[in-house]
Each structure stands twice: as structure tokens, then as C-alpha cells.
Amino acid sequence: MESPTSTFALLEQAQAGDREALSRAFEKYQRRLAVLIHFKLSERTRTFAEVDDILQETLLRAFRDIGHFSYQAPGSFLRWLSAIADHVIVDRVRYEGRERRAGEEIPFRSESNPGGPEPADSKTPSRLLAQREAVERLLSRLASLPEDYRNAILMAKIEGLSTAEMADRVGKSREAVALLVYRAVKRFRALSEADR
Amino acid sequence: MTDSEREQQLAEAFADLLDRKATETIPAELAADWNALAEIDRAVDPAALPEKLSGHRIVAEIGSGGMGRVLLAIDQALGRKVAIKTLAPRYADDAQLQARFMGEARALARVSHPHIVRIYNLGPPGEPPHFVMEYLEGAPLTRAAAALTFPQRAELMRKVVLAADFLHAQGIIHRDLKPGNILVGPDLEPKLLDFGLALDLGARERLSKIGEVAGTPEYFSPEQLEGGHLDARSDVFTLGSILYEVLSGAPAFGGGRDLPRRIRQEDPPLPRRIDPSIPKDLQNICLKALEKSPAHRYASAREMADDLRRYLADEPVLAEPAAYSRLIAGQVSDHLRDLKSWRHDQIVSEAEYDALRKRYERLVEREDAWIMEVRRLTLPQVTLYFGAWMLAVGAALLTFFPFPKLTGAPAVMVAWGAAVPTAWMGVRTWRSGYYRVAIAYLLAFCLVAPVAALVTLEETHIATALTQGQPRLELFHRLEFAKEATNAQLWWSIAAGLPVCWWFRRFTRAPVFSLMFAAMSALLALATLLRLGVLDCLDRDSGRFYLDLIPCAVLFMAAGFTFERLRMPDDSRYFYPFAVAFTLAALSGVATYQEPLANWLKAVAPWTRGQIEYLFILNAGIYFVLDRMCDRFESSQVRMVGKSFRFVIPGHVMTSLLLLGLAANSVAEQRIDEWLLPAVACVFVFASIPRQMKNFLVSGLVFLAIGVYRVQQEIFPSRAWWPVLLLVAGLGLMLAAANYAALRVAVGRVWNRR
Questions:
Q1: Cβ atoms of A51 and A103 closer than 8 Å
Q2: Residue A106 backbone dihedrals phi, psi, to 5 degrees
Q3: Closest CA to A53 of A4, A114, A96, A14
Q4: Is domain B138-320 annotated with CATH 3.40.50.300?
Q5: Where are the domains of chain B?
Q6: How far is the CA of B492 from the CAs of B101, B457, B488, B529, in angstroms?
Q7: Could you report the per-residue pLDDT of B613-668, keeping only the tens digit for each?
Q8: Are B181 and A90 in contact (CB under 8 A)?
Q9: Measured between CB atoms, which of A17, A115, A157 is closest to B260?
Q10: Degrees (nearest 5) of the Cα angle B331, B334, B339?
């Protein structure tokens, strides 16, 4: 049974115009999204502030475009958000050096603008990632993995893709992807055990 | 099996796990890897459900908001469901916020009300911050309301409003009421659920901290959006907003980024425009609560609940929202602009313009609801007046007539026994806001108080000195069956009533007490004349009495003028009519009864023989002068006085001429008067033009007919040419009037040629 706060129910409400519902759905996934953005960015641009900005702008665009989103399966919302984040990052690179447009179209809720959408968190997503020891550990472990292993784990675990979807995306067979993921997980586990 | 085959197999199994194809059992070899991944979930997913809180087993999440989640739990000791509200983990490091969360939960736990959710216990110190509440099943208010009749919705809202009022009485402003936080059970009893962190226990900074991320601005009040001072009336606005949605099914101010501006500046669309079946009374209540200025809303949630009760009891509600006059005012200013241009283009006459403008302004004028109530003749209202009048009449009987079995102290007690409770009830009901009832009580007291004072003076034998020591100058001594109160006693009791009226006027701001004050002043003026021995005149020279009224008239005129100058136009307007009445009575009385005046006239103009009619014509002249004098003033009230003098002139003049003609001594005089009457009537008919005096026209026409008849009867009996002449003259005049413009041009040409 769908609980009233399941992602599907929240998104239905969001598409009916309930912005708070969208905020709440977004809240569920914001940490995953932050991790994805963190690794989508190059080493040079990856500052906490940047992750925060992109996360916020992704949310803004989600607010704007929620009408175009269609729910297909669990995880499709995060995938949609992830795609938006890709666009945001591309736009960032393109408009590098120009005036930021963040918040221009739909300003976030604040005392002076209580009608705006709720920001992802009153604390910045960067702080959101930083404030929890577990997340910091996770980031450092993922960072020390080889890139293909890291991407495998991000796709499988953070983005929640099935192995078939991952195979589609990377252009390999499902067997190859399964093996890649398995090896990545083994390495990841080894890193975890080494930490202890 | 090779290692690589083995690895591939494990990888496939792991992939199946990831794809959720095999979730029943995790193979032992993969358990460690799986757990390593589960760590990722724990790191990035919002906190999963805790196992237990306050010893209750957590079952599911019921809801979650910006501030935290509400969980369903089972109280295993008592075997019942409970709801547990937790603070969002992202506030876990905010000790101050946590302390407040618990502090407010503690304050809430002290609140016990059937329509407010009950708090069972607070989370113990070792656990994450939470508190345990009653678990409720039901539908959110707006969804429940959709299936209900309007009276049922009103009853639901009344309970909600009373619950809010209960919180206000505890010094708590809710600040985050919304339909989603009001649950309606299957028994149609509403419960206020979520207090979020919106409770105001005096901490201002919390709003700045949490207000940015929490709260539902759709139901915020304008002052809440502006960060202004909040009191119970802020919740009244929110309740109005909720009532709006409960009635119409649509939020009052919609949503979107424009929402705050709309809440602050715009009136919501009329609910009845959304759904014409919404009762007007409920719309009124809703709009009154939604007034932008707190001062125009219900002063408390209790008042709003009272109005809902009135609606439910089929009584007229008090709410008369200013929104209507604003709605109309917007249109009216356009209409007025049109009107003005019509007048400018002379499409409408000055008089029509004036009349229409007044009507429009009346429409926009805001009147307090209770004044409308007072004017509406309903059964309770009429009964109220009836009772007040009976009270006054009873008191009057008590004063005027001696009752052998009710004298002395008991009589005084009876009189005050009637007066004091009316005053007390009046002030009390006024303070509790039942203005229409209070006015009746206070008015009754204004009438009864002087009576009671008089009875007291009579029975205690105070101020018993007779006017000039002569009983024949005492009013009450002349009335055979009346008590023997002295003029002095009468004067003092009326004088005692004056400050009472004045105070009521200041206390209630109701102009009716100004009328009362003016009327009592008039009575006092007459009582003063009594004390000056005016009754003497009745015996010897009745004209003197009317002469004495002239100072009264001047006094009232001066009083009215003074009040107006003191910027109290509502008080002054009642003095002028008394001044006019005194003047008319005095001048008419003097003309009728004052012999020296008649003698003077006889001496000055012997041909008048000092007849009353000439004196009345003289009065008309005086009125004309007074009118001219009044017209020099800016004040519209003084001009009205002038107009009332002007009004009586034609009656005075033409009636006198008619009577003179009837009572002429010689044929010549009769002829003069008979011709004069229609001539003067014609003058009045046309004198109506400059100031639009309709009564000049009407009385002129009437007296013209009478004059023509008199001429026919007395001068041209049975001469047919007289009526024929009238026919021709009438037709000629009508033709001339119809071709007025052409005629004027022609006359102008002839004139110029000369």
C-alpha cells in the first residue's frame, strides 16, 4: 500500500501543484543527488559551495519542469533529477564567468519571499554532506576507488539503476556489468574493512 | 569450476540481489559485500524508522514535513496506537532548537481540550527528541468538508475556532493552522493536530530561524508575512482562510510566487462567485475574518465562533465585511466619474447628480454591523424597544401620580431598582460586544434615570422651594392628579440626565445619545423657563411665553454652531432642528398672542388693523432674512437650517393672503387681496427655480388654483371668458415653453433691433 509520503504519492501531489510535496520528495533524494553531483564535477570545480549551488539549481529546475516528469518506476525521479543536474553542470561550464542565474526564475523561500519553494535544506548540501561522519567516510572511500569501479557503485547504489540499465548506459553486456559491480563492491568492502 | 566462473556466478547472484530479483535470502558468501553496500544506504538516505521510541514499537511513517516526521507506533502496554512526532535529524546538532521543541511539547501537554490532540508523554532524555500523541483516524478538514452540508461545515469550523480560542486563552498563538493539520474523525469532531514549532510562547527569534523553512504561507496572515507583531487576530485571519477553503473548496489566495502579495493586498474572490450556494452569512463571516487590517477582523476567535453560532441558530450574523464596500467602491468611483462628466455635459441635472452621488456614497459608507442590526426590525429588536418603552412609561407613571401604598423609601427603591440594572446591563452588554442590545438598555436608562432622580427628590423632599414662593407658578401643582413635585426638582432631575447622556455618547460613540442630549437640553431649557416663572404668562400675557422661547432658539443655534466648530458634527446636527423648532414656535406664538406687537403694528400701519395675518407675513420676511443669513455660512448644517426657514415661507405668505381676502373689511381691500393671491402664487411658482425649491412650486400651484377660484367666485361670477382665458393662457404658456429656445432667439432679435 502506498503510504501518503511515498515518493510516488508525493510526486503526484507535486504535479497537482503542491510544492511542499515536491520539496519533501526532493529531500528524500537530496543526499544521493549531492553525492552524484560531487563525483560528476571535476576535481577543480568540486568545492562544497559548487555542489550546493548545483543542487539548489537542480531543485529550481525540477520545480519548473515537474509537469514534464512522468513516473515510471521507483528510482525514475532520482534519474530525472540526475539528468537535470547534468544539464545544470553543462550550463555551468558554458556560462562560466557570466552572471549566475540561480534563483532568478523562482526565488527560494525566505522571510522576504515566503511563497518560494523550500530550499533543499537550511544548511547547504555541502554542509549536509560534511556534517555526517558516515557521508564523509563514504566520499573518501569512493574517491579512492578506480573510476570505473566508482561509477559502477554510484550507478548501482546511489542512482539505483538495475544492472540491465547500467549495461545499456555503458554499452556492455549485463554479465560484464555484473562482474564490474561485484568487483567494485569487493574493493569497496576492502576499503571499509581497512578503515576499521 | 574456475575462479573466474565462480566469480561470474557470484557476480550474477549479486546483480540479482541488486535488481531485487532474489531478496529472500542473501548467500553467505555475499553477506559481507551486501552489508558494506547497505552502509551506503544508511549514509545517504534520510533516517530510517527507529525501532522504538519511548518504549513504543514504531510501525510506519504517517507523515513528514520540513520540521520532522510523525510516526505511527504501538503502545504495547495499553494495546493502542499512538502517534509520535519527531524532530528532523538535520536539526540533531541544534541543541537550542531541540530544547525548544521539547519545551513547547511540554507546554502543549498542559493543554487539554476535546478538539486539540492530546499529548501523552515526552521523549526521555536518552532518545532522539520526540513526543507521543493520541493517534487519530480521519480525513483532513477540507476533504471531509467537501462531503458535508454548509451547516455541518459551519459547525465543524465553529469547533475549530473555539479550539483556537482556547489556545489563545492560554497565551498561545498557533500561527500554523492549516486544513491539513485539522483532522475530522468519523464522528465529525475536528481535532487540531500539528502544532509544528509554530507555538508562540514569546520567543521571537524562532520565527526568523524556522519561519524560513517551515510554515504554510498559503494560510499566513498579512502581518505574519511582514514579520509584524502577532496576536490572536493573526490566527483569526488564518481561520478565515481555512473557512474560505472549507466553503468554496479553493484556497483563498491560490498559490505561487505571487501569493504573499495577494495575501497582503488583494481581497480573495467572493466565495459565492465560486459557489453560489454558499450562504451569504458564512461568506460574510469568512470575509470579515480575512480583513487585511487586524482591527477590522473579529477581535477574537470567540467572536468569530459566536457569529458561526448565530448562523447555525438562524440569527442574523454581525459580520458586515468591509470587503463589500471596497468591492463597490472600486466600481462606484468609476460611476461617479461618469456621473460627473454627465453633469458636466449637462446630461443630468445638478439635482439628479446630487441625488445619485448621495445614493452612491451611502452604498460605500461603512456602517457598523450593529447599527444595521438596530435598524432592522426583527422580533427580538422590536421586543427590545417595546420593553424599553414600557420601562420608560412605567417610570413616568411613577413620577407623575401619587400612589398611597408606594411612598418614601420604597418608591425611591423601585425607581432606582429599574434604573440601575438597565445601566449595568447596558454597559456590560456593550463591553461584551452586543451593541444593539446595549444601546436599548442605555437609552432606556437615559429615560429612566431622570425619572428616578425626580422620584428621589420628591420623596426625600429636597429642593422643595416654590418658584417665587407661589404655588401657581409650579407646573405640577396645576395638574390636578399629579404629585406635587416642584419646578426646581424637575430642573435638577433633568440636569442630572445631561451628563449621563454625554458620557454614554463618549462611551459608545453612538450619535443617538447626541439626539438624546439635545432633546434633554431642550427639556432643561423649558424647565428653566418654568423656574423663571413662565407660567405667570399663561395667566396674564400668553405672548410673553413665546417671546421667552426666542433666547432658547438662539441658545440652541449657538450650541449647534459651537459643537460644529469643535469638530463634532454628529453632535451639532441634533441641536439645529431644536433651534429651528424653537424659532418657528416662538415667532408663530408671538404673532398670534403677543398683543403689544399687534398694537405696534396698528400704530405703525393703521390699515393693517394689527391683524395676525400681517404679522405672519412679517414672520415670513424674518424667515427670509434668517435664510439669507444662514446661507452665508460654509457649513452644510447651518445651510440646512436656512433651508428649513425657507421652506415655511410660501405657506405663511399665501395662507395669510387667503385669510385676509376672506376677512376683508372693504370691497377694495378684498379685491386687492383676491388679485394678490394668484399673483403671489405665480411669483412663488417661478421662485422655485433658483434653488430648486419643490415646495415653492407645489404650494404656488395649489394657491394659484385657489386664487383663480376666488377670483371666479367673487369677481367674475358666471363669466365664461374667464375659464376660456385660462385655457388659452395655459396652452400659450405650454407652446412657449416647448419652443423656448426659438422664442428666446426671436425675443433677443426684437430686443436688439430696438
A1: no
A2: -130, 95
A3: A96
A4: no
A5: 3-44, 54-135, 138-320, 325-366, 367-540, 591-717, 721-754
A6: 67, 9, 6, 13
A7: 999 999 999 999 999 999 898 888 888 899 999 999 999 999 999 999 888 888 88
A8: no
A9: A115
A10: 125
Using left for φ > 0, alpha for ψ between -120 and 50, and beta otherwise, residue B45 falls in beta
Three-state DSSP state, B172 = coil
Domains in chain A, CATH or no CATH each: 1-131 (1.10.1740.10), 132-196 (1.10.10.10)
Q: Which long-range contacts (CB under 8 A, 24 or more apart) does B555-559 make?
A: B555/B525, B556/B518, B556/B521, B556/B522, B556/B525, B556/B582, B557/B583, B557/B641, B559/B521
Percent of chain B with pLDDT over 70: 90
pLDDT of residue A117: 47
pTM: 0.49
- Rounded-to-integer distance, Cα B268 and Cα B247, Å: 13
Q: Which residues pair with B130 in a beta bridge?
A: B86
Closest by Cβ to B18, choosing from A20, A123, A156: A156
Q: What is the pairing mode between strands B56-64 and B182-184?
A: unpaired
Answer yes or no: do B45 and A135 touch at CB < 8 A.
no
User: Which residues 43-102 of A have a C-beta within 8 angstroms of B?
Assistant: none
Banded model confidence at residue B163, pLDDT cuts 50, 70, 90: very high
Name the strand (E) or helix (H) holding B233. helix B232-248
In this predicted structure, the answer to whether residue B406 has a pLDDT above a threshold of 90 is: no
ipTM of the complex: 0.76
Instruction: Decide: B663 and B710 in contact? Cβ < 8 Å.
Output: no
Selecting from B60, B90, B208 the residue whose C-beta is nearest the C-beta of A123 gives B90
The domain defined by B54-135 folds into: Phosphorylase Kinase; domain 1 (3.30.200)
pLDDT greater than 70 at residue B721: yes
Model pLDDT, residue B557:
93
Q: What is the distance in angstroms between the Cα of B341 and the nearest Cα belonging to chain A?
A: 44
Please give the full DSSP string across A119-187, using - where no structure is assigned.
Answer: PS-SS-HHHHHHS-HHHHHHHHHHHTS-HHHHHHHIIIIIS---HHHHHHHHT--HHHHHHHHHHHHHH
Strand order of the β-sheet with B190-192 is B139-140, B182-184, B190-192
Once rounded to an integer, what is the mean pLDDT over residues A33-49? Answer: 71
Q: Residue B720 has what DSSP assignment? A: T
Taken as a whole, chain A contains a residue count of 196
